[in-house]
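TEACHING EXERCISE
Course module: macromolecular assemblies
Task: Read the component lines below, then compare them to the predicted structure of the full complex.
Student: A.B.
Group: 4
Components provided:
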Amino acid sequence: MEIDWSVIDKKWQKKWSENNDHETDYNDKEKKFITVAYPYPNSPQHIGHGRTYTITDVHSRYLRMKGFNVLFPMGFHYTGTPILGMAKRVEANDAELIEGFKTLYKVPEDKIKEFAEPVKIADYFHDEIKSGMIEMGYSIDWRREFTTIDPAYQKFIEWQFRNLKEKNLIVQGSHPVGWCPKDQNPVSQHDTLGDVEPDFTEYIIIKFDLNGVKIPVATLRPETLFGVTNIWINPQVTYQKIKVNDEIWIASPECARKLEFLEKKIEVIEDVSGSDFVGQSAKAPHNDDSIVILPASFVKSDNGTGIVMSVPAHAPFDYQALLDCKSGKNKSITSDLLKNIQNIEPISMIKTEGLGDIPAKDIVERMGISDQDDPKLEDATKEIYSKEFYEGILADNTKQFAGKKISEAKDEIKEWITEIESADILLELTNSPVKCRCGAECVVKLLSNQWFLDYSNKDWKDKAHTCFEKMNIFPNEIRPEFDQVLDWLRERACARQHGLGTKVPWDKEWLVESLADSVIYMAFYIISKYVNKKEIDGNNLTDEFFDYVFYGKNDSEEIANKINITKEKLEEIRTEFLYFYPVDARHSGRDLVPNHLTFFVLNHVALFPEENWPQEIVVNGSVLMGGKKMSKSMGNIIPLREAVRKYGADPIRLTILISAELLQDADFNAEAINGIKNKLESMYEDCNKIKAEEISELEPEDKWILSMLQNLASNVSESMDKIRLREALHHILYDFDSELQWYLKRTKSKQRTNISGILHKIFSNRILMLSPFAPHMAEEIWEKLGNTELASKSAWPSSVGIEFDPTSIQTETLLKSIIDDINNILKVTKISPKKITIYTADKWKSKAYSLILRNVLDGETNIGTIIKSLIANKETEEIKKDPDFVKKILNDILSESIELRKGKMDVEQIDESQIISSELASLVKNDYNVELNVFSESDSEKYDPKNKAKTARPFKPAILIE
RNA sequence: GCGGGAGUCGCCCAGCCUGGCCAAAGGCGCAGGGCUUAGGACCCUGUCUUUUAGGAGUUCGUGGGUUCAAAUCCCACCUCCCGCACCA
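Instructor-supplied answer key:
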């Protein structure tokens, strides 16, 4: 049968929407507030986004069926810079981007024209994403929808920011960023040509003094100051004499430009040649030693200040350059100078195990380096640097720092030089040149007056840790990562100068950064409903209003009057907030662990009382396409709406859920989705045939299958409670099939015609369990099964209302294992059976069996001990004849599940002869079309030509096939 | 470098926390059979090696160890993936 998925999808989506099934207000029932990270509408959603939202929807639907009043709302995050960047590119007629809109996203041309305006982009994809969510059947309360640039939301963010500032959690400082000097804007990966992230490093500038003029050397290793022997300058380079704030420096022109962006006032006085300084001496800041300036070609003007200090003992470049000087190879050295420098020797000042006193010398010699322009010097430098950094100890000639590890002393030394006013900081790109999309070359800029969320605040961190400790984290494996992130977090910029968003309330030059305005918005879903219903005017909202709704502060009547609503309305909003808060679950992809999810907790603990702290975080992995990462360049991104049109909502939902557990990457591929489609279709067909008949007297197999159904229900519920959706789905869709097969085989061989009622019960329960996962198909089948209520409105079948029957489990297990054994024998012997004879075990064996079982359950598995106790017992002393029997029984028992063992202990021992005679005969007749004879081992009249009977064991009767 | 995680029977993916239900679930693929005019779908059987009696052997990245018993616990090693900030 061909199923038109879209017809079914639409049919039930319409019904849910007509019934307002997903609109949730406060009432007397227990609530669950389930939220998920809202989307950033700069592109349509693809299957990967669908995973997080689908998991959230399944969670919501499950809890709804469990009887909770579940709120699942959605908003749209307009705030941020990428959309702004896109709008600029549209305005500039960027062919690549526009082509992408056309072919990849299928945006109509007239719409693209409007995209020069950023809000239009957001609006367009907002609609697109929302439609996709509806088409996926997400049970969202759309009355609460908002965007982060709505006036009411902006008031809310202002309240949040003022509140954090009052608590001293927002502080001011400066911060380095990648910067485009032309756009006057910070740049990050998506703003640059080739999508490179500007990466920068901090050089320490140490200032040597030359008659009042500063000779600044830039270094990554300030600790090596103690080993300085000379200074290198490039005689080929034209330097500049510049005024830096109040000092006069000599530096390369490139350096002068860099310094301008680092909050320095720069004035160029004149050009000077590097060669002018060769042979002069400058005073070292730490000991006033006179340090000679020597020429070196390896010094580059675009690196640091264009001047470096020389530490020949520990820097291979310096060692080699010094050799070049002393040997007279370097022509810019006068003969006088040449004489003077012959006594310059490397000063060893770091001791490292495995390295000599002068490691630079050793490595230069080892690598066979011959001059300072040898590229091998880079490797040599790296090797020594990392070894010394992690293992090096500062030597005695380093004064107060002697004995310390480099990795520890580095910062102390930096501070010390800074204190004696001989140091400065130079930030420099390590992956330059980085070009902005506008074409300009980027620099590092120190942004001053930047606003920070002070995530380094100890009390704040502690509180967040406390919250995490009490929270459920699914899956729990991710918990250490949260703790780690929390510890590592420090001040974080929370304001930007461009993009969409809310102005920082006390500093209108700045906009609230988009990861800062998206941390407590779950609370806003309560308010947005009233704004959307026009019961309150977003423009009127005040801090007092939010203080009342969230904290119950001050007098409701007074506040209500001020914002022109009734006191009752205001109190209603407060009541609703108190009802829905705290957030019971927050879902998101794992990429948000180190940022949003952690900030979400931090901001909640800062702004809300403990009873309103989040209760649970659920994190999921991403989705792969046919085993590969989704990416634009691979062209393997499938927009969600396109996929829904192609496959139907439910097959997509199930495919992304069943392919992996929460944290694993799920794989989406054509085979998987077809498998799911077929599975659903065959369930649909099966259910079409079943009628809801009266269930008559229960036969053993009926009791068994219903017990298994009960098992299924409790297993699935358990998985659902742990958000192990893959596992739950497996139980529902596949695991039960083999039980059902056995049941059908049993009833078929008994030629029963009265099982429709039982099957109806089984499928009804399975469909209900399937309903959160495949809501459309479940409703459709549920209707076919003759129900008038919606499946999604029915109670979750935690229990199927059947008494669990352990005896029937024993019976069916016995029958199955005999059939298995017969099949095994037939397979090995390849005979076609004419007659099958079964021998059941003697009474004393049964007695021994239960004694051994008792022992195992009590933890006694030592054969010797067990045998002794059996021999001591009159009823079982016969085992003396066959001690091997005990070993076999013990293995039988150990190879069974603990449940089964307990089951055997709990119920009366089943009468094997009786069961085999009454139930097995029909199966054997059905499967092999032969007669079955049953004897007891002790039966003296038995037919036993091959002497098989004596091998019979309890639950393992002997078999003779002829 | 720091931090987190993973390596399972052709592939994907469970199992590991709480050792014995484990030659190890399920899906996909593959082979055979059934159904069908045919194909698809569906159903059955098989899919580490070996075995003419329901058995035996060797497997869970590698090497050790603990234990009566290890995919599971401990130690070491190898390989791979992800995050590391002002960006959603």
